[in-house]
Amino acid sequence: MRAEIGIDNLKAKDILDNGGLVGIPTETVYGLAANALDPLAVSNIYAAKNRPSFDPLIIHVGEIADFQKYTVDFPVQLLGLAEKFCPGPITFLVKKSEIIPEITTSGLEKVAIRIPKHPLTLELLNSLNFPLAAPSANPFGYVSPTTAHHVYEQLGEKIPYILDGGPSKVGLESTIVGIENERLIIYRKGGLDLDEIRKVFSGEILINDHSSSNPQAPGMLDKHYSPNKRIEILNDFSELQKIHKESTGFLRFNTKLEGFENQILLSEAGNLNEAAFRLFDALRQFDKMEIEKVFIELVPEKGLGVAINDRLRRAAAKS
Ligand code: TXA
Ligand code: MG
Q1: Which of 140, 141, 190 lies closest to 168 in space, CA to CA?
Q2: Any idea which positions bind ATP (predicted)?
């Protein structure tokens, strides 16, 4: 099989109605979608991604009213965030309704649910009579895709169709939130930053995105989002005389280093939104260069920079 790339939502719908897989654009990253209510279709997602079956999937719906269909007792504390930010880069981890099969949530009682902000995908979702389970459309552990072409390069042999909605505007996966003991828990830092969330949620917020003790959420494991090159975070770029220039790449925020090649700037203007938008494509570009190692500069730890640095640290993590 070789995936076709196109903008034909009827074709995408037809494949999904018949239990197949389709690459879909979202504002965060591209997803690998299948009918979330069909256990066989969902099992094909795990197989195509090489994803362990204990790592649950996010389901995607077209409108807030769908939250009632697929979840139970949606916490009132989350309603303000849902109204303000959906469609958008936020995912709610809440109690699932019985019609969601166990395989979709890896047997967990909670389901992760979101409304992606992308016109083509929203149109598709609203034409289907089931939600779409869709993890990021990359092999397990690798960098997430932000273009149809990224999906094609890695999963093109395994799926029939990729909907091309242009480059993902945000470029980082959604922020995952839920309520525990009246507090808002951030399970994954992502494309909606904490400052935005704080404007709407006035209660206590706890960040709990470290799951080394919780293998049920490996997307939050230390090592993730990893390109194939060795990655190292460098805090001091002034001591680089000894390195082998030709075999080293540099990922920099907004300024180039004098005298080095193989450099990618995330945002010359120093804009964190632009940096997020370019991050995953930059990591993929290094994988194609004839280099052995990439030195990375962290970006300012504010706004979207918090989630960008999270991805950079995980890309550099040893295990
Ligand atoms: O922006 C996004 O969220 C993208 C686009 C395609 O929507 N999707 C995405 O999915 O990033 P994925 O599968 O790559 O990451 C989902 C993360 C994983 O770390 C998974 O373990 C966690 O969410 N997750 C999903 N359902 C869960 C559940 N029921 N309980 C705990 N963690 C869950
Ligand atoms: Mg992923």
Answers
A1: 190
A2: 51, 136, 144, 188, 225
> What is the pLDDT averaged over residues 78-90?
98
Task: Provide mean pLDDT across the span 193-219.
Answer: 80
Residue 206, in any domain of the structure: no
In which domain, by residue range, is 162 found?
A: 4-170
CA 173 – CA 310 distance, rounded (Å)? 11
Ligand 1 neighbours by CB, cut-off 6 Å: 26, 28-29, 31, 55-58, 91, 93, 105, 108, 110-112, 116, 134-136, 173-174, 176, 216-220
Residue 144 has pLDDT above 70, yes or no: yes
* Cβ neighbours around 157 below 10 Å, total: 10
Supply the ipTM of this predicted assembly.
Answer: 0.99
pLDDT digits (tens, 9 = 90+) for 168-201: 999 999 999 999 999 999 999 999 999 999 999 9
pLDDT at 220: 63
Query: Which residue, of 170, 193, 217, is where some domain finishes?
Result: 170
Ligand number nearest to the C-alpha of 144: 2
Of residues 250, 231, 224, the one with CA closest to residue 307: 224
Question: Which bound ligand lies closest to the C-alpha atom of 191?
Answer: 1
What whole-number distance in Å separates Cα of residue 60 and Cα of residue 103?
16
Whose Cα sits closest to atom 33 in ligand 1? Answer: 56
Please tell me the total count of domains within the chain: 2
In a domain, 282, yes or no: yes
Ligand 1 nearest atom to the CA of residue 191, by list position: 1
CATH number at residue 71: 3.90.870.10
